[in-house]
Amino acid sequence: MQLIVLGLNHRTAPVEVREKFSLSSADITAGLENLQDYEPLQEAVMLSTCNRSELYVAVDDSIEGVSEAQGLYAAQQLLADMTGNSEEFDNFAEYIYTCIDEECVRHLFMVAASLDSLVLGEGQILSQVKHAYSIAKDAGATSTVLNLLFHRAITAGKRVRTETRIAFNAVSVSYAAAQLAKEIFDSLANCSVMLVGAGKMAELTAMHMASQGVEKLYVANRHLAKAESLAERFKGQALGLKEAFRKVQDIDIIITSTGAPDYVIRSKELAPLMAKRPEKPLVLIDIAVPRDVDPEVEGIPGVKLYNIDDLEAVVDENLQERQHEAKQAETIVEAEVELLLDRFRYLPFQPLLAALTEKAENIRAREVKRAMAKLPDMTPEERRVLDNMTHMIVRKLLREPMMKITSAAGQQHEAFFVRAMQNLFELDEKYIEEMEYDK
Question: Which is catalytic among the residues 50, 99, 104, 191?
């Protein structure tokens, strides 16, 4: 089985490219439900966040004639079809990276540990990895390989967060937005701020704005009830989207983070409002992917627009205190990668070893039963001693052959040992058919 990750992120692609690969949970589910149409792909997980879109696949390379290139091509086709980029996928080649096998494992572990994030140590990515895995599992798109990969990646991410201080003095995209606004206005205490959107990102932004002393906070959302719920928590005022536009002439800062598929704020709607406040500038910070704000608004006098890519400069200032912790986190990641690779090396042997153990246990139990039938006067304690003794004899007899075959994992002669063990112990052929030794 071969592992491949195919994707793009904030380092390889600008926001206008990333938003073309952004997917909702429903889109991902629909795409993964068609996985059987993309041979030789056997398993798949799609991770889509503001800063990355990554497709993880397990390829059945034991099929005769299947090459690494064919697995990669199938993964590209699945990613292109899921994101609706089939027609122009080749145009995005320069932005897309590929990691295979060990590098795929390491990449996911780095992602889950927040070591590959725009904001080093940010807390959201681990829950996003969990969510992506959950969607794929519910869609029936995962099995042994990706289940093991994602379980261990999530474990690695948890270890990094509990065993290092990388998440202390928390920074995030929403925090970076608040910091950027503070740099522009020096103090936010007298600023009026409008949040467009009422999801998790808006909630985090509201928290950071409140910590900066913002007193005039408005929350605008398509669903007024959600806006009211968030505004109430931070002593703000809820607005519907139409009402929000009428309020713009009183606002200093607008931060958008909706999940809308198209622009929420457009130049033709904003320009007349800005004409009514010629002496009052407006700062727009768009932290949504796809973008909420039409880039043309920056041509309106008095408007200054920032998008998620502009936050990198703010984020960089917060990285120094996390670099030392990142080194410790990388050590944890490498240890976890090695543990998983060992598991993968032994994975093909599990059916064979299980068959051997089962056969030996059945023989032991049968012979113990016969012996006890001939010794009816044995006490319960004596029966327990006999049962335990025979169990230990079988375990010790199997220990050497099991160690020998597991030591052959990944070696050129592994097939020889498997066939030899099958023949010596007369194990059922079906266990061998599940393994990949005809490569």
Answer: 50
